[in-house]
Structures are given as C-alpha cells and as structure tokens.
C-alpha cells in the first residue's frame, strides 16, 4: 500500500528537521512551493502542516510564514549572526533586495530571454581554444601544492606584460592575483578600509560593490555622473584624510555604459591628488571596446601609488575562471596578499595556469578581436530594435564598449510593473532601482548574453509590454 | 660607456618610487639585500643610498631601516589600514610572527629538508590520474559562466555521497563548496560570529585558524588536551549563550596528531548540547588514517544542526585545487553561501569539475589507499629514526593518522636555538612556540612531505644539532 501523499510531505519535513538541516526559527517553504514540489493540492499540504503543528515541530507566525519550533536547542546561526541580506539597507542606494534575489533565481532559468546577464554569451565562449589550453596545461603539469601568496609568478609576469600594453608599467611584485575582481573589492574592504569610513562612488554603481562596502560598515556617498563620467566637482569630502576613498568604474561603467573621457580622467586624478583621496579603479570592461581604444587607465597616470587598479578575465573570457588582479603600491599589495592568504590561501592552481596560458600565448588578444566583432553586431541589433520599437517610450545613449545599454523609460511608465510583467512573459531585465533609488526610471539591458534573435524578440516584446502596462 | 654600478641601484629605486610601487613610509630592502641583488659591495650600495638621501627621496630612521620619504602625498595604505600581521598578537597563544614568516619563506627553498610542510610529498601526487581527469573535464566541457552560489550541483552531490560513507547524511542543499577549509573558517568568522565573541579551541591549534579568528576580533580561549582529545571538563563558559563557539580538530589534530576517542566525542557533544555551545568540526585529516578507520565525525551524531562540519581535498590530493566544503543546517549554509557570493562569487569552475571527477569516479578512494601505504612507510621510517637517534633527548606519541609527530624535547634544550641552528644547516622544522606559548618545548615534525631518505637524514641531523646546542 502506498503512503498517503500528505504523509510524504510530513516525512520530508521531519527528516529535514531531524537532520538539523532546517533549524529552529527557520522558515519552511511556502504552501504553494510545497504543493508544486509534491505535485499535490494546497489542501494536502495544509493537512501535512497541521500534523506537524500538532507534533509541536512547526508553528505559523504572523507575517513570517511557518517556522520550525521543535524543542531542541537553537543553534549559533539563529542566535548571534549577522544576516547579510538584511544588513544591506543602503543610505543613498536602496537596492530592492527581493528584486535582486528574484533576478538571481531567474538567471538560471534557461527558458527566459536573458537581457539582464552581465556576461558574454555561451556562443562567444572560445571552447576550442579553452580545450587546447587545458591540454597544454595538462601536458606541462607537475605536482603542485599551495601557491605563492601573491599568485603564480608566471601568471603575474603575464599580467604585467598585459598591463604594459594598456599603459600600466608595474612589476609582478606589485600585482596580486585574486579570485575575480569582486574578491579584490572584498579584500580591500576588510583589509584597508576602516569601519565607518566613506566610499565615494558613481550613482548608480555596480551592485555587488555596494553590498561589499556596506557589509563592512562603510558609508556610501553617491556622486552623480554626466556623459563624460563622474562629476568631479560634485565630490567633496566631509571628513579628514585617511577616512575616505573613491571607487570608480571609468571605462564602460556598470550599469550605465559611460566611458570617462580623457580630460575628465585628468581632472579626477588632479582632484584626488589635491584632496589626498585614494582611488579604486575597477577596469573589468576595458577590453570590451567596440569603436576605439578607450583613454588610458587612471593608473597609467598615477605617479604617487594612490590608485589601486582592478582587472579580471570574467567579462572577456569566462567568470568561471575566477581570475582577476589588483595592482598597486607594493606595500599595499603585500598587505592584501597577506589577507588573501588568510582568507583562502591563494587561487586555484588550474585557473591560474589556464589564465597564464591565455595571456602569454597571445590567444587572449586574438579572442578579444572575435569578441569585439560579436559585440558590434549585437549592439547594432539591439540599437536597431530599440530605434524601431522603443523610440517613443524611452531614450538611451549608444555605448562605445561593454555590453550594457542604460535605457530611460519615459516617466509615464512604471518600471517595476514593467519588470514583473516582462518576467511573467519570459523576459528578464534589470530594473534601475536595484542600483540606486534615483534610477527607478531606468532599465539595464545587456546585449552580451542573449542570442541575436533573442535580442530582437526581447526588445520587441518589451515595447509591447510597455504599451500594455500603459493601458 | 657603461653606467656606474651605483647608478643602476639609484635608477632602480627611483623607478620603484616614481611608479608608486614603493610608497612613502615603506622600507626599502636592506643594504645586504641590495648588495646581493646587484652583485656589488656594501660600499657601492651606500654610495647609491647617499645620493638618494641627498635627493630627499629616502631617509634612514633609527630602528626602522631606510624609509621612502619623497614629498608627495601619502596613500591610503599607510594611513588608515589595519596591519594584519601586526594585529596577530594573541592572548593565550602568542605565535612568534617573525618565526612564521621565516618558515613561510624557507618553505619555498628547495634545498632544505622540509620536515615542516603540512602537505603531501610531490612523490605522492597522482600526476597520471590528474592528467586523465583534466582530459575528461576538457572533453566534456561546455561554455561556462558564474557558478551557483553553493557550488556546482554535481560536485555537491558527489560530496554528499562521499560524506554518506563517513557517517554524515546530508543533501546537497546543506553543503557549500569553498575554496579550501581555510575559506570556510574565514566565512564563518566574518559572517556568523560576532566581534568580541569567544572561540574555545584546543591548545595548541592550527596556526591559521588562530589568525582568522583573531583578525575578526574573536577572543580565543585555549582548552588543554590529553591523549584522548580535548579535555571536556576544562571547557567552561564565561559568557551567556550565543556568544561562544567551539573550534575543534578531533581527527589527527594539527599540530599534535591526537585522535579524539569515540567516548570523548560523545562526552563533548553531550556537553556542548547542554551548554548550547555550537561546534566547528575541522576534519581535513580524516582520510589520512594509517592504522584503523577513525571514530565517526561529531557531525554524524549531531541531531540538532549544531555542528558545522569542514572538509577539504588539500591534505589528501592537492592544496592547489583549493576545494573544500562546509556542511551544516541549511539556513546557516544559505547564509554562508550568500557571503561566499559577496566575497568571491564562487570557486573556480575548473577546480570544481576536477574535484567532482575525483570523487565521483572512485579514483579518489583508490588514491587514498596509495596515500595510506605511503604514510605507513614514512611513519615507520620517521619512528625508527626517532627511536634510534632521539630517544634520549625527546618523547613523542605515535600518531595513528595524519602526518605530524609532536615531539617534546627535554627541558634541557632550547627549542628556539635548535630551530635556528637546524635552519642554518638546511633543515626546516616547526617549533611549537608558533602554535602556543605553552608549547615552547615541542617541535612539529611532518613525515608527509620530505622523501624517505630526507626523513632519515633530517632526523639524524636533528639529533646531532641537539647534542651540539647542548654543548
Ligand atoms: C564593475 C564590475 N566589477 C567587478 C565585477 C565582478 O567581476 P569578477 O567576476 O571578476 O569578480 C563585475 C561583474 O559584474 C562588475 O560589473
Ligand atoms: C586543521 C586544518 N584546517 C584547515 C587547513 C587549511 O586547509 P585548506 O588548504 O583546505 O584551506 C589546514 C591546513 O594546514 C589545517 O591543518
């Protein structure tokens, strides 16, 4: 005889609780979710939950859903810890965390048209080259153990050569290999900045940078941008020196796509020098120029060791590599390396060797050419579709690199409703509100990830949705 | 005409300063170091430094060496940051940081006999299998991007199966893939523990755990051990619940090699349950048993989700993989996953795929058999040599797994002098003082890394040095 269906649910939940996977105080999945999971009616779920409540294992709490309450002792997690998600309530920027989570989940749904993802399309992934590099790494492999604190020396040499081509002349001892640009920001936050110090940054700015700085107790101070980049005369410091830092994405800014002009770069450096304001230059999109080579990095004009420069292979090759770098004054790099040792003891040897081969073999530069061609085609497709379908509802700037178009929807339309409606129709976009409160009327559209056809269809759908939402 | 040699040194240093690699306040290399670097006499170095001093670029400071002092503005690093190395001054444990640094540097010297390294010998590295796995990963590779927050699902499934064989029954959703066990400790410290909370741990304990907990502002409370493991009746809590946690390495403890007995494990769990003291179980040495399978993990007897369990492939396969895992209540794992996302956006795809193949193909278990045979031979070699040469100067316990022997040198001999002497003769050992003040009379000898012959020679040399130092 088969067990009744509600019993399956009861057993499932009891098992989760008894194994300690669902602890006291944690919320169990919603009735709707459980019904879907077990393919039963809502009423069957309710029967199951009632039995568990009678057993004293769970309890409904107003406004909190159903909570585990079995009478064993509570665990550390519930008692003492910081809830990182809850902590992210920003001053100037108020990202709507629930929307971010919704996007994160939706991003793994392959049935959606992804106009949100900040990474290159699988179509552009250089599979053959990656295989041949893995082959080479495998052939040349010798037994390996813990890597050097700053990262594999050959990789750092390759990065040093790479940077030379971009105007930055540093030796390998001033380079730290990190597991992606985000780790660089994390290490800087926990190791160099003081709690309560201020971070000046563009409004809007890269979403996770906000989270990282905030989690470590920094105060964010948003600076507006114009078409030439961050507005230098809007930066003013409220605190004495040593307490502030500037974080900027001067080249193909995320999410706006803005490219900081050469004279603006000079003005910014001049200002920061005068005000003794150190700079974190996040330059992960530099290699994705489409029209012309962008002005040289701030770091290339930094004669005082005041710029910490960050790069990565995530946006051009693959984020799965988890390889990036930080470049700065040797003493600062030493400190960050020490901290990196304490946090994960160095990056994966495989990833380091693969990255080294890409950079030093010249395959990386070849690959960039393909990427640029692809981005050119995709951008054209996106702009054509935008011009055709959206010109009466929205405005935008043409990005000269990167893969984001920052679209301002006319005030008559509610972007949040538009986002929900689009999602329900299978189209994923990033609403501007997740980057900054002030950006509520914007959406970030990525033309890097979806296929050409999806870009066309997606933008057309978007225009239809806008019309509908308007009705 | 060639430049005079001193000019080369001047140019080198000016270049470092002007590029901002050596910032104001940073110490330049010692005269001895520079002389070696440029293959010149000390007097040539002095000429160069005098010229730079005359230029106002550097200055000698009493007790601090020569410092960069050029009159540009100081950078963030010097102003506001935490010096992580300096911060590590422990209460109960007082690791001698300079000795640790000396060891770290000496560990990359291939001419030394390495009886210090906590990793397996390159001789045991499974190069052929690693190559064939890389081959397979390469063949099966598809374009990849950012991984799931908790790590590749197939890898988590493989870890779940692996853990089942070790008495721990958890689903992949309660497992977080991390970049090594150390990262697990780092994430726990920054995400779950509160500043000022107490960490109970064995005295002595794993060196980097001390640093991680301390860096995050935890207070360390050392608990003595006996032959059966941590002494449960020495644990007492001074603060209320939610403020303390216990960190333990029950299986082949680092550095002592102690294996916690089954009844001691039960006693510990019972105590922690009663006192509501959550546990971090660091079990990275479990698979390195030599004689018999060790008692099951604490986690296998944890019915209340109070144990966070940590494992890793570093000690059995290679630390270069940077793959480990944390297992715990789902809500805690979710929180740690969120934090992992914020700190590095997941571990390397390559490493995850390689680890998955090792675990799921059965090659890992086969490899463990080889490792155990090798460790058995190495342990025998070490013990024979110890018995032959050191029995009148020292005492030790025979470890039943792992690769450390914790040797107590008779009080008549100064271990610090012994360490220095040994190093100068090409023999690297870890003095107990780096783990705990109380362990000054111990040395940790690893039989995992050096070759069989080096183990013999090294231990013989050690006995000679002890005799000499005694004179
Ligand atoms: C501006 C910026 N910096 C850093 C990152 C993170 O890159 P990585 O994958 O190298 O950590 C991103 C990714 O979205 C980004 O947009
Ligand atoms: C007890 C213990 N935990 C954790 C680690 C770090 O291991 P991983 O390389 O996985 O970060 C070590 C390495 O020495 C160790 O001895």
From TrEMBL, chains A, B:
GO terms for molecular function: DNA binding; DNA-binding transcription factor activity; pyridoxal phosphate binding; transaminase activity. Its cofactor is pyridoxal 5'-phosphate. CDD domains: AAT_like, WHTH_GntR. The keyword Protease does not apply. Keywords: Aminotransferase, DNA-binding, Pyridoxal phosphate, Transcription, Transcription regulation, Transferase. Residues 3-71 form the HTH gntR-type domain. Pfam families: Aminotran_1_2, GntR. PANTHER family: HTH-TYPE TRANSCRIPTIONAL REGULATORY PROTEIN GABR, TRANSCRIPTIONAL REGULATORY PROTEIN. In the C-terminal section; belongs to the class-I pyridoxal-phosphate-dependent aminotransferase family. This is GntR family transcriptional regulator.
């Amino acid at each position: 005889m088969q067990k009744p269906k509600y019993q399956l649910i009861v057993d499932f939940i009891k098992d989760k609780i008894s194994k300690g996977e669902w602890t006291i105080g944690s919320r169990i999945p919603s009735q709707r979710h459980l019904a879907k999971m077990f393919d039963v009616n809502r009423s069957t779920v309710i029967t199951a939950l009632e039995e568990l409540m009678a057993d004293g294992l769970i309890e409904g709490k107003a406004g909190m859903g159903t909570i585990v309450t079995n009478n064993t002792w509570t665990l550390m997690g519930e008692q003492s810890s910081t809830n990182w998600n809850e902590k992210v309530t920003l001053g100037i920027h108020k990202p709507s965390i629930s929307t971010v989570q919704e996007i994160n989940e939706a991003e793994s749904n392959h049935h959606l048209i992804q106009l949100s993802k900040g990474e290159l399309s699988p179509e552009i992934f250089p599979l053959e080259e990656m295989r041949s590099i893995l082959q080479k790494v495998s052939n040349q492999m010798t037994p390996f153990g813990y890597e050097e604190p700053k990262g594999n020396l050959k990789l750092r040499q390759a990065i040093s050569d790479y940077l030379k081509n971009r105007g930055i002349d540093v030796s390998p001892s001033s380079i730290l290999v990190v597991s992606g640009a985000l780790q660089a920001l994390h290490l800087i936050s926990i190791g160099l900045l003081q709690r309560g110090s201020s971070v000046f940054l563009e409004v809007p700015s890269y979403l996770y940078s906000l989270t990282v700085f905030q989690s470590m107790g920094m105060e964010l101070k948003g600076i507006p941008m114009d078409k030439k980049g961050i507005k230098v005369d809007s930066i003013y410091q409220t605190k004495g020196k040593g307490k502030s830092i500037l974080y900027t994405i001067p080249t193909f800014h995320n999410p706006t796509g803005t490219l900081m002009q050469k004279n603006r770069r000079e003005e910014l450096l001049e200002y920061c020098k005068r005000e003794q304001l150190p700079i974190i230059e996040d330059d992960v999109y530099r290699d994705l120029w489409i029209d012309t080579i962008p002005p040289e990095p701030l770091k290339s004009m930094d004669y005082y060791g005041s710029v910490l420069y960050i790069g990565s292979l995530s946006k051009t090759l693959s984020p799965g590599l988890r390889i990036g770098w930080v470049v700065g004054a040797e003493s600062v790099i030493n400190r960050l390396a020490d901290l990196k040792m304490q946090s994960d003891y160095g990056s994966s040897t495989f990833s380091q060797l693969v990255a080294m081969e890409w950079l030093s073999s010249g395959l990386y530069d070849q690959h960039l050419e393909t990427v640029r061609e692809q981005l050119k085609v995709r951008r054209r497709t996106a702009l054509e579709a935008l011009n055709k379908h959206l010109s009466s509802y929205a405005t935008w700037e043409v990005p000269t690199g990167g893969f984001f178009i920052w679209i301002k929807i006319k005030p008559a339309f509610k972007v949040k409703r538009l986002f929900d409606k689009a999602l329900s129709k299978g189209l994923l976009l990033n609403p501007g509100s997740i980057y900054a409160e002030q950006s509520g009327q914007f959406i970030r559209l990525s033309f890097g990830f979806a296929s050409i056809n999806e870009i066309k269809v997606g933008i057309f759908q978007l225009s239809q949705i806008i019309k509908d939402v308007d009705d």
